[in-house]
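ENTRY TYPE: paired fold submission
RECORD: A
CONTENT: sequence, then structure tokens
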Amino acid sequence: MIKVLIASFDMEIGGVERSLISMLEHFDDKNNEIDLMLYRHSGDLIPLIPEKANLLKELKAYRTFRMSISQVIRSGHILIGIARLLAKVKASFSHVAENGYKQMQYMWKYALPFLPGIEKEYEIAISYLWPHYFVAEKVSADKKMAWIHTDFSTVETDTRLDVRMWNQFDHIIAVSNECKQAFIERYPMLRAKVIVMENIVSPIFIKKQADDMIENPMVDDKRFKVITVARLSHAKGIDRAVEAMKILKQRGINNIVWYVVGYGGDEKRIRELIAKFQLNDCFILLGKKLNPYPFMKEADLYVQPSRYEGKAVTVREAQILAKPVLITNYSTAKSQLNDGFDGIICEQSIEEIADGIVKLYKDQPLRERLSLNCRESNYDNDDQLNKLYQLM
């Protein structure tokens, strides 16, 4: 048996976490002994972790990365708290508006000396979520692999610090060709390490979950229903969705309602925009949902208004449910769908998002054609795991 460690942060609801669950469900446990290391034993997806994966004991020091600095110090991890403070100060000197990625890098760099490692030795260690310092520095393994879910053309990192970390991995796995290319452009010296392996999705599981009988306001809503499933964050562009809805109302289109399943740090700002534009009756935040698929199933159109994406798992899930899909032209968009065949790509402006929705709202034959092509496409891709087994 090959001893395999897979490490990630927690099991809060999100696309990366769902893709991890899918990978674990399909992982070969006849030839592999799978340990799962979560920095926090929290999140609504914890019950979905397959029994084949042995969830290791939580190490309290790693929980601190989701706490405020004051909470870290009050919890007794004073040195980690000081490390966090140093990281925040150093990242503040960055010349970019969003320095969250750099702050995360420095946070790990300064905290590493005060973090425990794992005594058990592995043949394979997989770090599933950036930053990958835990597997790089605190795990002993014959071979190490790290996942890329991020479009690195859109984020600012400390390149020198990153390269030092990436060099400790034998293989780097990108979830799309576009993710791979963006990464290589940022780190050309790492080209030989990078391969592509798509997020694993399970059409059977998604369709079964979509049939769950749950309380769903969309069922009785007779308007044209748009849905987005995403974090309420800058990257996902939900604020732009609100702006696009405002444009639709200004054009006199009153038979459209936009539902959003998700939660996140931008919720307050998004609610303020909804109130400002008087859209409370037609832009509806449904909040966090363990099972988003019944909501997707009731929609007439799925829209992904993201500013950037690695590869949005929810877009593929909507296609599996045979929904017409509209996505913005983020740099990895062409890896998500075949434009005009199983979805439509619009440009990145708010006006273009609104135009794309209007086009699909008015053109029922187009929606039906996109839906039919999705229904007839094979989105089952568990064969992608063969790439991982070959590396192993």
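RECORD: B
CONTENT: sequence, then structure tokens
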Amino acid sequence: MTERPLVVFAAGGTGGHLFPALAVADAIARRRDDVDIAFYTTNRPIDSQILAATDWSRIAQPIRPLPRTPLKFPQFLSGWVASHRLCRRAWRVRRPSVVVGTGGYGSLPPVRVARRFGVRRVLLNPDAIPGRANRYLGPHADAVMVQWESTTSLFPRAGMVRVTGCPVRSAFQDGDRAAAAKRLELDPNRKTLLVTGASQGARTINEAMIRLAETIARCDGWQILHLTGELDLQRVRGVYLSAAVSGVALPFCDAMADAIIAADLVVSRAGASTLAELSAVGRPAVLMPYPFGRDRHQTANANELVERNAAVLIPDRIDPSDNAARLGPVLEALMADRDRLENMADAARAMGRPDAADEVAKDVLTLVNRR
């Protein structure tokens, strides 16, 4: 009896690493019912939270991020060795056909072990500038899938580099705005400002919005959906209540497709997965890239949309009052300018690659057939 092919996704640590992998996994399952799928993740709570809603098996690696202080290096080394050992032991029993890495430290051990075992390796690289993990793994990959043309030259030694866009889940491809608003307990007759700091919230964006509560309350016909993360939820809710801001504040939203579909304008970080979702739905955005990244990769991501007039960039200066002073006038102007919002939405939609998950799935299954 022939063993069923196994596709392993090495992903985790953030929603931005997991959601594109989930989109590809779903696309593979739609095409083939004889392929098994497993996720090798980090042990961060966000990984189990996201994958709990799926049927895919999950193996949590003890790998840790590379520490910034030498004192924590022994813990990193222990997790590094244990994660490699975990993969080797599992794959001696059942070897994968393909391993798909999505970047981040959680992808390193599975992709490295796959190379040693002679297993095909695919990298998803949605960011305009590859992160350290993908830069390291790129020369050893059979194929690299990128979101934007500007990234192709940054993988000169990969087996194949293809512009597919960033895979997004099928829920982002079809949706009714009014129905999505109702599911989120929003008023479908009001325009919605979505504020999100990705899967765990963003303190600097939350602080800026707290200072802009009265400004938002004055915007006639608008409401807010603010995804704050756990730590700032009660404070944000209290400020919005005092300022009579219409809308909802939540720590996290499992139905992110509903949140973006219900939105008329979005304030967010500039994670590659988030930008792909905004483009797939066609939503204008004000982007405040993560300010602490070593290579400012989110700023490079944001510029892809800004250059096409699909978004406005507001650098996050970390100081709450400074951020609010620059963000407030931009939001007021956009929320009062229906034509500009529509033009930005059209520009975002023109960038969308809703077929990205299927394109990547086809290439992965081609490698499965060549195992």
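NOTES ON RECORD B: Residues 6-168+355-369 form a domain with the Rossmann fold fold (CATH 3.40.50.2000). The chain is about 45% helix and 15% strand.
STATUS: closed
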